Amino acid sequence: MSTPARRQAQVDPWQDPNAEPILRIEGVTKTFGKTYAVDDVSLDIFRGEFFALLGGSGCGKSTLLRILGGFEVPDKGRVLIDGTDMTHVPPYERPVNMMFQSYALFPHMTVEQNIAFGLKQDKRPASEIGDRVAAMLDLVKMGQLGRRKPDQLSGGQRQRVALARALAKEPKLLLLDEPLGALDKKLREHTQFELVNIQERTGTTFVMVTHDQEEAMTMSTRVAVMDAGRIVQVSTPSNLYEYPNSKFVAEFIGAVNMLRGTVVDQQEERVLVHCHDVELDVWARYVEPIPVGTDVNVAIRPEKIDVAEAEPSGVENVVRGRVVEIAYLGDVSIYHLQTDDGFVLRVQETHAARSADPHYNWGDVLYLVWHARDAIVLTA
């Protein structure tokens, strides 16, 4: 997963005990009938963050975003923006703007008129509106397209107009609801970097809702993974991927091999787990004390597994498998190997050397090797 380079402060604000969040969510709950759409969510988001709410359909992320925007009122809890309680403040009185997936541009207005709309509603002076619209057009690199109507623009251009309109009023908080969902894959990847660069230049705090894990990982300073109305883990993209706190997060973020097992030994910062799926004892890194007999899951990312054609010796973890599926994706190949016990493991091989064919064929018997440090023990 690619991540744009970020100019990080020496201490990230969420690690600074003296930093004050620009957005504080305190015990927010929202129900629809008997369904808990948002269930006792508490969260701090800091000034200048590009924060992502990530989860599958029905997890509560969009409802939480609507609560932040003032379009829903929580049954319990509070929402504070820059220290002020906004829980019952209507959307038009909040220092917040929202960018919708559909962009919601006015079709009868030009690009300039769309961007100026909110400023005119606030009765700003004409000269101020003109300067601000020009600045926004320059920010999104659309200075030559101000006189066009939305139907004369591409999907990516409409997305940039919607962003310029949302930023024109200089909100303290910009909410983005699946902002790239209407774009094709190539344009979406390009626009991810554009959005990050614009966010860094303006310094505006962005809170984005998405179901696309790659989008969240690429664009965000931190990600909150949601499930069934609750936040199950909040961390940086790299920590979420390398150190998930549960089986759910490990499987939701990226591809993973998950082995069920029982702890049979512990030595310093390693545990030995008997994995029932492959009837094999596997070494994995685990620094906390854990009782023998504890049921755990061992997670191994596909790219952490090395492949050998001959059985290696002196390695921590090795299992034999036969290639049953191959997917050639250009930059990588994905292999599914079935072990002697019938369990299928996924392996990813990067194509460092130029080749038109996968390195291995269906039916090849190979040995899969990985280090204890690359195996994640999950107790939740």
Do you know the CATH topology of the largest domain? Rossmann fold
Helical coverage, percent range: 10-25%
Strand order of the largest sheet: 6-7-8-3-9-10
Low-confidence stretches: none
State the separation between the terminal residues, measured CA to CA: 25 Å
Number of helices: 8
Strand content: 25-35%
Nearest-angstrom radius of gyration? 25 Å
Number of structural domains:
2
N-to-C series of helices and strands:
EEEHEEEHHHEHEHEEHHEEEEEEEEEE
- The CATH architecture category of the largest domain equals 3-Layer(aba) Sandwich
CATH class of the largest domain: Alpha Beta
| Largest sheet, strands/sense/barrel | 6 strands, mixed
Structural class: alpha+beta
Average pLDDT over all residues: 89
Number of strands: 20
Instruction: Assign an overall shape.
Output: globular
CATH homologous superfamily designation of the largest domain? P-loop containing nucleotide triphosphate hydrolases
Structural features, described:
The protein is of the alpha+beta class. The protein has two domains: 13-95 and 171-249, P-loop containing nucleotide triphosphate hydrolases (Rossmann fold); 255-378, Nucleic acid-binding proteins (OB fold (Dihydrolipoamide Acetyltransferase, E2P)), CATH 2.40.50.140. It contains eight helices and 20 strands. The chain has helices at residues 61-69, 111-121, 126-139, 155-168, 185-202, 213-219, 237-242, 247-252; strands at residues 23-32, 35-45, 50-54, 76-81, 84-85, 96-99, 173-177, 205-210, 222-227, 230-235, 257-267, 270-275, 280-285, 295-300, 306-308, 317-328, 332-339, 344-350, 365-370, 375-378. The strands form four sheets. It has a six-stranded mixed beta sheet, sandwiched between helices. It has a five-stranded antiparallel beta sheet with strand order 13-12-11-14-20. Strand 1 and strand 2 (35-45) form a beta hairpin. Helix 2 (111-121) packs across helix 3, helix 2 packs parallel to helix 4 and helix 3 (126-139) crosses helix 4 (155-168). The radius of gyration is 25 Å and the shape is globular. It starts with 22 loop residues before the first strand and ends with a strand. The mean pLDDT is 89.
